[in-house]
């Protein structure tokens, strides 16, 4: 079972447009509404793979009620924490070439009591969880050290933590030694305070995060592939993508693939790559099912030597 924690979930509305023109009245060719937020996306991908998942998240207003219903339709157990503010609604505009324009709402302002209730919900629902995946930005009202406190409490209870966040929240949580952190290329560069021009630069940055506390780093490098750096060294993987339809949630799908494949080693990395490649070829923030995956298309450092990959540019 994978338990996910999404402190700032959303309803994600996606519109597919023939073109995006400022100041014009635009007519969408297709639209969809999905339960959103990084941890929610991980739960959706886990559920699509046939595994049990529980989503801990704050829910408020009619938007929160709709989000809970949508989670149920996806086979996800929602452990909702009632909050006074309304769950946010995000809007994505997708053009035919895959270009994405996304507007993320700020979300509710959580009170100290609501913040503590979220931590308590994680504690009460995490029994038997193989992993706890803590994902996304913190909403207003949660201090940067909130994830650090969650990691501290979870480790005391013997749980394994995967963390996908950035900025001050990531920096604070590293001190509590999360079992794996999952940045993208931009977040990895931000974390070390310098640009990453090559895969080799990304490896060095991941090693730096390990030196600051992360036990493993799973980094999404966009079209260039994915990187896993852990106590056994560095591993690199990629898969071809015929056409990108939407990259919303691709990193979340990758994390789900990694965790459901055990959360360690080259095999889990290959699963992460397969899930990410499948996700970008689906509409909106749709998560891949097993039928969407093409594991045979994934190449890892067993097929492409790492020393060759290290010199390749990061998108």
UniProtKB/TrEMBL annotation:
The record's section on Pfam families has: PfkB
Per the UniProt entry, the Enzyme Commission number(s) are 2.7.1.56
- Keyword Ribonucleoprotein listed: no
Alphabetical keyword list = ATP-binding, Kinase, Nucleotide-binding, Transferase
> Which InterPro entries would you find in this protein's record?
1-PFruKinase, PfkB_dom, Ribokinase-like, Tagatose/fructose_Pkinase
Which segments of the protein form a coiled coil according to its record?
none
Q: Which domain of life is it from?
A: Bacteria
Q: What Gene3D superfamilies has UniProt attached to this entry?
A: 3.40.1190.20
GO MF entries: 1-phosphofructokinase activity
Carbohydrate kinase PfkB domain segment(s) = 23-290
Q: Which SUPFAM superfamilies match?
A: Ribokinase-like
Please give the PANTHER family that the UniProt record associates with this protein: 1-PHOSPHOFRUCTOKINASE, 1-PHOSPHOFRUCTOKINASE-RELATED
Tell me its family: Belongs to the carbohydrate kinase PfkB family.
Q: What is this protein called?
A: 1-phosphofructokinase
Name the gene for this chain. pfkB
């Amino acid at each position: 079972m994978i338990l996910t924690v999404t402190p700032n979930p959303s309803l994600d509305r996606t519109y597919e447009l023939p073109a995006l023109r400022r100041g014009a009245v635009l007519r969408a060719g297709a639209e969809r509404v999905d339960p959103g937020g990084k941890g929610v996306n991980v739960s959706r991908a886990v559920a699509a793979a046939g595994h049990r998942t529980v989503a801990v998240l704050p829910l408020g207003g009619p938007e929160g009620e709709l989000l809970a219903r949508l989670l149920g339709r996806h086979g996800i157990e929602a452990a909702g924490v009632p909050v006074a503010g309304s769950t946010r609604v995000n809007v994505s505009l997708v053009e035919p070439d895959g270009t994405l324009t996304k507007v993320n709402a700020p979300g509710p302002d959580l009170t100290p009591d609501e913040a503590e209730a979220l931590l308590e919900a994680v504690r009460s629902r995490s029994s038997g969880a193989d992993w706890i995946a803590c994902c996304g930005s913190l909403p207003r009202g949660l201090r940067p050290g909130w994830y650090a406190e969650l990691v501290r409490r979870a480790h005391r209870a013997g749980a394994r933590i995967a963390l996908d966040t950035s900025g001050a929240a990531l920096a604070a949580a590293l001190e509590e030694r999360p079992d794996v952190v999952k940045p993208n290329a931009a977040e990895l560069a931000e974390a070390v305070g310098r640009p990453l021009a090559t895969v080799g630069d990304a490896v060095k940055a991941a090693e730096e995060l390990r030196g600051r506390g992360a036990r493993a780093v799973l980094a999404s490098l966009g079209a260039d592939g994915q990187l896993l750096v852990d106590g056994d060294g560095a591993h690199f993987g990629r898969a071809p993508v015929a056409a990108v339809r939407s990259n919303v949630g691709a990193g979340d799908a990758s994390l789900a693939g990694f965790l459901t494949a055990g959360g360690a080693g080259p095999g889990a990395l290959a699963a992460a790559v397969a899930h990410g490649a499948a996700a970008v070829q689906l509409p909106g923030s749709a998560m891949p099912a097993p039928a969407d995956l093409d594991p045979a298309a994934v190449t890892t450092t067993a097929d492409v030597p790492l020393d060759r990959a290290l010199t390749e540019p990061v998108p």
